[in-house]
Amino acid sequence: MAKSIEKLFRKAKGRIFFSTFVSNVYRLQQVVEAAHLYGRKLAILGYSMERALAISETLGHLKIPDHLIIDVKEIHRYKADKVVALCTGSQGEPRSALSRIAAKSHRSVQVQPGDTVILSPAPIPGNTRRIYKTIDRLFRLGADVIHGPKWISMLPVMEANTINR
């Protein structure tokens, strides 16, 4: 597991919303491992994220411990420091789970003050305006948002160099 992800999970006091590309199975596995290590249940938000996890696990590319995943509708039953939500929307896509959460229009989840939102990938050119609109909304809701240079500076040197290319 990446030390940067482990460090973020260790420091987060509330719920963690982690957004990354669904195709980055390596990053998905890191989030699964960190959730398990810190005793957090994992909720999956977004159809494409659910589908990618299911396919990756079926093919043996992703290993998810039994009883780790919970239904998104059950999040409220757990203490804030016991939940991670893996969600779509790292590029500010308007109908993604994270964008709907930021706009307070998600039917099952709302961001609360003290939650941490991590946008793992660097912005793709052309998406910047939408990404920062989502980030602004999340800040206004009281979330601590980790993204861009702040996130990249936490990555190991090898991983950060890959992102900056």
Automatic annotation (TrEMBL):
InterPro entries: RibonucZ/Hydroxyglut_hydro, RNase_J_2, RNase_J_b_CASP
A Pfam match: RNase_J_b_CASP
Gene3D superfamilies membership: Metallo-hydrolase/oxidoreductase (3.40.50.10710)
Start and end residues of each Ribonuclease J beta-CASP domain: 13-138
Name by which UniProt lists this protein: mRNA degradation ribonuclease J1/J2
